[in-house]
């Protein structure tokens, strides 16, 4: 049994990103894993303040007193992290970037290493209005961060497109099946 935390980076609850992430979670639960889904728009995360408290080891995780800080020890303890984001203005959404910035506490600028995260698994989901292949750059960036900087293990990248309205992904049942399968086969 793995502990999985899934983060939805679209403020549109029940939208395409949310539906795909929830399909992965359905598969994960069938597989016996424990999953918690977090909607980043509900965290009121104002972003990293660059106070350097984490880098100077003045606090265990983060000096900001908000919900995101309470999630940091849970992230340190999780086995797998899922991050789903819509593409906004050619990039990942702002709330997703604000979330990623708060993971700075896991990075050690002094020697360019990461603590707690190396070896954990991660999956990414991206959704855009343009055809799927148009914004591979967002997935590349996420892989650069999670695999490159944090030394986490990539267990799946779902890249989707042609999604404008909230329910458009329902016309791409194959993607939702692929997402469920990804969850079902995580080991
Ligand atoms: C502010 C904003 C900016 C967007 N920018 C882009 C973009 O640059 N390229 C693109 O292909 N789609 C863009 N879209 C469309 C969304 O990526 C697409 O509808 C996606 O499926 C939304 O995910 P959701 O259903 O989970 O909210 C944008 C949507 C919004 C609201």
From TrEMBL:
SUPFAM superfamilies: Flavoproteins (SSF52218)
One MF annotation (Gene Ontology) recorded for this entry: oxidoreductase activity
Domain of life: Bacteria
Pfam families recorded: FMN_red (PF03358)
InterPro entries cross-referenced by the UniProt entry: Flavoprotein-like_sf, FMN_Rdtase-like_dom, ISF_SsuE-like
Stretches assigned to coiled coil: none
This protein's UniProt keywords: Flavoprotein, FMN
Segments forming domain NADPH-dependent FMN reductase-like: 2-157
Protein name: Multimeric flavodoxin WrbA
């Amino acid at each position: 049994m793995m502990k999985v935390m899934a983060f939805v980076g679209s403020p549109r609850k029940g939208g395409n990103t949310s539906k795909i992430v929830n399909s992965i979670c359905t598969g994960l639960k069938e597989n016996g894993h424990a999953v918690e889904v977090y909607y980043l728009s509900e965290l009121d995360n104002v972003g990293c303040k660059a106070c350097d408290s984490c880098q100077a080891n003045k606090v265990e995780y983060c000096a900001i007193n908000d919900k995101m800080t309470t999630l940091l020890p849970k992230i340190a303890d999780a086995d797998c992290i899922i991050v789903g984001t819509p593409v906004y203005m050619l990039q990942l959404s702002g709330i997703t970037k604000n979330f990623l910035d708060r993971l700075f506490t896991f990075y050690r600028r002094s020697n360019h290493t990461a603590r707690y995260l190396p070896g954990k698994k991660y999956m990414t989901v991206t959704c855009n209005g343009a055809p799927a292949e148009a914004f591979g750059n967002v997935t590349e960036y996420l892989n650069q961060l999670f695999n490159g900087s944090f030394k986490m293990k990539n267990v799946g990248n779902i890249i989707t497109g042609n999604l404008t309205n909230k329910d458009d992904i329902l016309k791409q049942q194959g993607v939702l099946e692929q997402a469920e399968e990804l969850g079902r086969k995580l080991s």
